Amino acid sequence: MTGRIHSIQVGLPQSEHADCPDNTTQQPWTTGIVKRLTAGPVWLSRHNLAGDGQADLVHHGGIDKAVCAYPSEHWSHWQSLLPPTQLSGGAFGENFTLEGLTEKEVCIGDVFSVGSAVVQISQPRQPCWKLARRWDIKDLALQVERTGFTGWYFRVLQEGTVESNAPLQLMDRPCPEWTIATANRIMHHERENRTATERLSLCPLLSASWQHTLRQRYHHQTEADPQQRQFGHTRSSP
Hints:
The protein is of the alpha+beta class. It has helices at residues 75-78, 129-135, 140-147, 180-188, 194-201, 208-218, 226-231; strands at 2-10, 14-16, 29-31, 36-38, 42-44, 67-71, 96-99, 111-114, 117-124, 152-158, 160-162, 167-172. The chain has seven helices and twelve strands.
């Protein structure tokens, strides 16, 4: 299996003064979701791409979420919601905009070579309110979750340089039963399926945070409220 990097985006946390170009009335907010296109080779370390960072280090970034990836194949679905001129690399705050790989085709634990680096899929992305606020669409994070068009995260097994148009070549697939689509379905749509919840939580290559959440659910412990993540600081769209 081979995909391709359509584009690479990086960005450091900054204060945003409006969610949309036409909206100048909102209070500033700090986020790293706004990424800029980068050309040429970029260094990929264990923690992130050179020039990239996150504002909320509790919920974003870290070894298991070094790189956020999103399939460009989903742009056609979102063109009725997002400005066509903005449906390009980084529209969903991702670092790698990909071609040829989707949630139905890749699995937790998949190892890919890309440039001189080696990366491994760690978990689906769980979009938060910052994506919704960026585009001024209050339920956008929820819509992303419901469609399953979430993208995913890579951890870095071998540091190296990456660049746009580089192929991602599958090197190993240790967990073929756990596609990103399947993991999304269990986390978001089959909350009462305790057997599937337990099995996914025991996947050793799943990120630590997802394992923890699924084990809490399996043992009927209190989970974080998903609506706080989805709607935390959004505002109603006009």
